[in-house]
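[09:14] KT: can someone run the structure on this one? pasting the chain below
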Amino acid sequence: MKRLAALVVALPLLTAAYIPSGPELGKAEGQCRSGESGPAFLVDVAGVKDHTGKLKLEVYPANDTDFLADDNVLLMAGKTFRRVEVPMPADATPRLCVRLPGPGAYAVTVLHDRDGNRKFNWTRDGIGFSGNPSLGISKPSARSVTASAGSGLTTLRIVMNYRNGLFSVGPIKGTR
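[09:31] RB: done, structure tokens below
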């Protein structure tokens, strides 16, 4: 009887609509409106290597379990995920705007997808995180990239990191 009761409880979860992962997930929620008043991050992207490809900004919950987790898994669980993707602007320091569900703590990433293939290639592409942590061989902790958003517009400066040696990744000289 207990198994039947557990199945009845689990059945709606198993048959819930699956959200397939894709490049459009989180974009509608993340798109800033004209005259955006917030809550939102205005992200200044410093130290871009060149103006090829695309910039992709993503916002995650500020915890290690959800930081950089699959977008469809986060959305199906009702967790925060936002995405803004634009062709690389010509500005020396591009500025991106991303709407947030409310004030609070978030983890933010920016990918400079130089070849536009939607996949991170550490030998070619650039990556940056809120908090601008020094990068090693693994992803930074959510705590090191946490940014706090208020009820209005919150400005962040994210410094891009590119491969700069055989096994090292960091900002372009003079960017920090």
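[09:33] KT: thanks! Confidence is low (pLDDT under 50) at residues 4-12.
[09:34] RB: yep, looked fine to me
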